[in-house]
Request: fold
Amino acid sequence: MRGKFIVIEGLDGSGKGTQAALLIKYLASKGRKVFQTAEPTESVTGGLIRDVLSGARQRTSSELAALFMADRVAHNVNPVNGIEKTLEAGIDVICDRYYYSSIAYQAVGEDKQWVVDMNINCPSIRKPDVCIFFDVDPESCRKRLESGRVYLEIFERDIEQVQAIRARYHEAFDLLKDSDNIVVVDAARAPQEVAADVEKIVDKLFE
Ligand code: TYD
Reply:
């Protein structure tokens, strides 16, 4: 049987990392084999992307969107440890960020339509079995980040920008509600409460 493809999304500081770790433990306790991955990936393209995210290198938003796209296609089709290959081997894939992030972060202004279209219509980009969005208001995300991070990435510095990103996430979910299985979870609660919701969502995939 194919593995399940689970995407987790949320603003920086929404608790994705904590929830991914809890979910992996949960799936392992059920005897599932799990592969944890993330975008941007560790590929050369991922490195080019990180140079932009850290502010070390300037690129336009459309260049960045194209880099994320290239990274995502490779992430799907990589014959060694790509998403396709892993699912075929019966291993569940938990991916921290996916095309929903590109829509929330790069589908802006005149780039809006093509960024959405290329991510949604690309035959090499598999739709996940579920996308779980950890929804927290930007102020709380910022507080969580400030207590734990040495530096903030370019998208985390301006609260109004983060609010716009959250709004675009919700727009994307509305747009994709018939084609994608998306569940929005209130992530402003205690981690164990959030995790209990996540377990229920994931259990449904195995019914
Ligand atoms: P990173 O620190 O690698 O992961 P996270 O903060 O999720 O733990 O940051 C990834 C950054 O990349 C984050 O600010 C969102 C951004 N991003 C995009 O702008 N577009 C995309 O398509 C993806 C996958 C991420």
Observations:
- The longest helix spans residues 61-77.
- The chain has a mean pLDDT of 94.
- The chain has one domain: 5-206.
